[in-house]
Amino acid sequence: MTDDGSAPECFEDYGFVYGDMHVPYRVERKAIASDKLRKITIRVTPDSRVVVSAPEGAQKTAIHEAVMKRAKWIHDSRQSFNEQQTYVQPRRYVSGEMQFYLGRRHVLKVEENPELTEQVKMTRGKLLVSLPKFQDDKPDRVRELVKDWYRIRAQQVFTTRLEHLLPQTRWVKEIPAFRILSMEKQWGSCSARGTLMLNPHLVKAPRDCIDYVILHELCHIEEHNHGERFYRLLGQVMPEWRGVKQQLDGMAELLLNE
């Protein structure tokens, strides 16, 4: 998603012990206006890094206390991400693999059917790929067909959700232009001109996760950074966004896997 545009002034690396495990964390300090209060926030990234954002003048003891209060949550989040990475393997695009659509699992089935042209369709819990004849490059062809199918579905779903969500964002007068763009680490972004870029892999996530990303980017049309006003807007249109974001972050490694 869109960066806030203000780079941290410095990094500080610390750590703490939880059980028999040493957990490193990085503190990013940011300068803020004297009349604005900024809380210490903590996030665990999908690659298990712990990042703490803090005001420039925050005391080290206060930062460490904030981290220790959430030590169990940090440990559990890192463990969850590590477990996901252990089981996530590159897809081979063969029958029996799992594919996802709107948060639900579907079994990939590849069949040879001389009576049909190449096609992909969803039927009874399966994502069925039909090929008129199997060739040596079958997995590569299946991969391309599945990617195209996701892009088409993404265009349809994102258009529908944008139309549904637009009344909640009073500062956006009409449905913004958007592009489907594959990204390795981002679900979406917003250009300075208000054009949205949405990752086709997002259509694999539950609908409330899709709504969160779209609303996040619509908020960037009004506020191009991640300042206090941006999060106030996001909280107005989706009060539960933190929980939804955490859910989506937890699925990222699995859904972005190709």
UniProtKB/TrEMBL annotation:
This is YgjP-like metallopeptidase domain-containing protein. InterPro entries: UTP_pyrophosphatase-like (IPR053136), YgjP-like_metallopeptidase (IPR002725). Gene3D superfamilies: Metalloproteases ('zincins'), catalytic domain. Residues 38-249 form the YgjP-like metallopeptidase domain. The lineage of its organism: Bacteria, Pseudomonadati, Pseudomonadota, Gammaproteobacteria, Chromatiales. Pfam families: YgjP-like (PF01863). It comes from the Bacteria. PANTHER family: UNCHARACTERIZED PROTEIN YGJP, UTP PYROPHOSPHATASE.
